[in-house]
Amino acid sequence: MKTTRRILLAAMLLAPGLALGADKIILKMGDNLPDRTNGWGAVVERINAEFKAANPGVEIITESYPDQPYQEKMKIYATAKQQPDVFKYWSFSTLLKPMVDGRFVVPLEQATFAKYGYLPGALESNVYDGKLYGIPVSADLWVVYYNKKLFKDAGIDKVPATLEEVIALAPRFKAKGIVPMTTDGKDAWPLAITLDQLVWRLAGDSTLPRKALERKMKFTDPMFVKAATLIQQMVKAGLFQEDLGVSDYGASRNLFGQGKAAMYLMGSWELGLATDSSFSEEFRANVDAFKFPTVAGGKGRTDDLFAWYGGNYVVSSSSKNVELGKKYLEFYASRFPMLAWEKQAAFPAQKVTAQPKDTALAKTLLRIASEATATSGTAALDLSTPAFKEDLQNAVRELSSNLLSPEEFCAKVDAAAEKAARKR
Amino acid sequence: MRETFENRPLVACLVLPSVAVMLFAMLIPLGFSVYYSMTDWAGFGDYQFVGLENYRDILASDKVFWRALWNTALLMLVTIFVQNPIAFALAALLTNVSQRLSRILRTIYFVPAVLSLVIIAKMWVNIFNPTYGVLNKMLRDLGLQALAVSWLSNPNTAIWAVIFIIVWQGFGWALLFYYAGLMTVPRELQEAARVDGASWLQTYVRVVIPYLYPAIGAVIVIDVISSMKQMELIFLSTAGGPGQLTQFLGVYLYQKAFVSGEYGYGNALSVLFVAIAIGLTLLVRRAMPAARDAS
After folding, report:
1. B139 and B73, same structural domain?
2. Type and span of the H or E element at A113
3. Given CB atoms, is A422 within the 8 Å cutoff of chain B?
4. Within-domain flag for A218
5. Do B45 and A385 make contact, defined as CB atoms within 8 angstroms?
């Protein structure tokens, strides 16, 4: 009896050890796509499933958070060298460059990825010190989404072409209790990008913000002051939601998706709006986009497209599975464009062919991209240090809350640029 | 018992866990913080030693730091002079109703204190929403359209809306403390005062409140400390906006350290934070016994 008990005990103690013997490699991932059943998140889940099928013995565990908290989490993980093996990041100098400088991400072989049909400039936007550090995943275009039904109900039969026309539409929507235009005012970066876009529309030159950051000119230049004045004009005309300053990404997106706002100032990565099952069928059938309006008297043209390659995927240098991570990236690069376009979930940084069953929104975005005669590259807010980005965003929040005059705003931004230039 | 306490090695062993906690959870991290506060570290990568430059920047040219201190002071004043009297008055009322009613009401009033801060913040952001929020809908229905402002993004009302949320959340604790304190006041004391001809108000002001000075003192110390520590509710509602007007130290140092990549600066803010908090606590504790002795 005692022997049997001893054998049983030994078996119970050994069993877990034997189970662990079937060792699985765990690939830890991170991204800013908390919704795994819709849009981009669902596409990543599909790619992960296919990767696991092609690589038995690999388990993938993903951490997802909304946009800004995700960025903060990754930065915090960096301080503890605990970043996921493969994670979504951004190619900007405010985000990727500190990671490159701190040797937190591994360089990739540019030649390996060149064969995956990347759009011109896409891979290059992820190159620092001559080495490729991430694969771009989306081509980001700055557009205005709109709800065709709300426009029709307000008696508007054609999309506005100039900023003045957009502002003039505001009272017509407000009379119906609809917010004319929503954007993420709490995080301020959409308005910061819009500022750069307006400078381009006014001056006909997309290099002004970059020049100001390099201190070849100042942010107090009349073009910047005029752009800041236009932003404040938009706010004062009641174009945006009343609580712009506390309306974050999700809140502003929901306002639009739930049919409470007529327009949504955001980037092309939201093409999944047309297929997001959490919104009504009516909304999905009526969402479309138009090109960012021109400014009366400005030198910029409609087809000057504010576009950049923001989102990318990188491999952590503290990962124990670097080669597996690189293999995953290659797999992602081969599968993402087709799957994302099929689900209309994202605007890939790789070439895609228009499909007959594309949504109207996707067709419009493809058209806007193909009709572009010039593109801008990354906006000023992401071309400098993280401290500059935060200072600029704080200043934009103050500008959009009417706490600063355009001149004061420009002086603040210029001081921040000066501080950042001295630190570099 | 005496032998136990005279056995030094044993005493050392018994005290070791607490000392270890103090050392590793408080003093050593504080030491690290002080060290990093004298660098320009971004949180990762290389850094340089910059001495007291961060402190100089904060005290001399950082308007947001002073605004955060001002907001903390406002919160403390509202908590001590608005939340506490109301909580006290309500607790006094609760001691004079039936047991059952008192228990039901106490539970209801304590609910905000146990709700998750995330839920509270999001709930109030929705209530305060200028277009779709319940508050403005009510105001408009009552014909008070002029008052239906954008509570959390209007520069004039934002800080008061945030303070309201914080005070609302902490109300249950104050009520609980005062209720427990009032329960300890001997009936004979109040009856004696009544017999001597004191009115209901005089009984409370001259007899009950002085009797409760220790409890009131404790609540005030806790209020001061928790006012300084406020972070979550502000972060989740306005994140310091509009334009840094509702900024508090906890949120500001988080943003500086982890969002702006100015980890050294954030550490300098937190060291100043600790210094101010300790200073304030000592001040309040010194002021409180005096009040007790005065009665």
Report:
1. yes
2. helix A110-113
3. no
4. yes
5. no
Q: Are residues B181 and B92 in the same domain?
A: yes
B157 touches A: beta carbon within 8 Å: no
A235 within 8 A of A402, measured Cβ to Cβ: yes
Q: Which two three-digit tokens encode residue A358?
A: 């594309």
Q: Do A387 and B261 touch (CB under 8 A)?
A: yes
Backbone angles phi, psi at B25, to 5 degrees: -95, -25
Residue A367 corresponds to which tokens in the numbers above?
């058209």
Strand blocks (E) in A35-152: 58-64, 86-90, 127-128, 131-132, 135-136, 140-147
Which domain range does residue A182 map to?
142-307+375-423
Nearest C-alpha neighbor of A249 from the set A68, A395, A397: A68
Does A168 contact B at CB distance below 8 Å?
no
Q: Which two tokens stand for residue A129?
A: 């010190």
How many Cβ atoms are within 10 Å of B84's Cβ, its own excluded? Answer: 21
CB atoms within 10 A of CB A34: 15
Residues contacting residue A260 through CB under 8 Å, at least 6 positions apart: A178, A179, B131, B132
Q: Could you tell me what percent of chain A has a pLDDT over 90?
A: 74
Q: Do B242 and A104 touch (CB under 8 A)?
A: no
- pTM, 2 dp: 0.84
Rounded to two decimals, the ipTM of the complex is: 0.78
Per the structure, the complete domain to which residue B9 belongs is given by: 1-27
In whole angstroms, give the CA distance from residue A324 to residue B271: 43
Q: What number is the average pLDDT over the span A149-163?
A: 94
Whether residues A382 and A327 fall in one domain: no
Span A203-260, pLDDT tens digits: 999 999 999 999 999 999 999 999 999 999 999 999 999 889 888 898 899 999 999 9
Q: Does B125 reach chain A within 8 Å, measured CB to CB? A: yes
Per-residue pLDDT, A16: 57
CA distances from A79 to A82, A255, B42, B211, B259 (A): 8, 36, 9, 52, 13
Rounded Cα distance between B251 and B166, Å, is 14
| pLDDT tens digits along B192-217 | 888 888 888 888 888 888 888 888 88
Cα separation of B290 and A216, whole Å?
Answer: 63
B44 shares a domain with B22: no
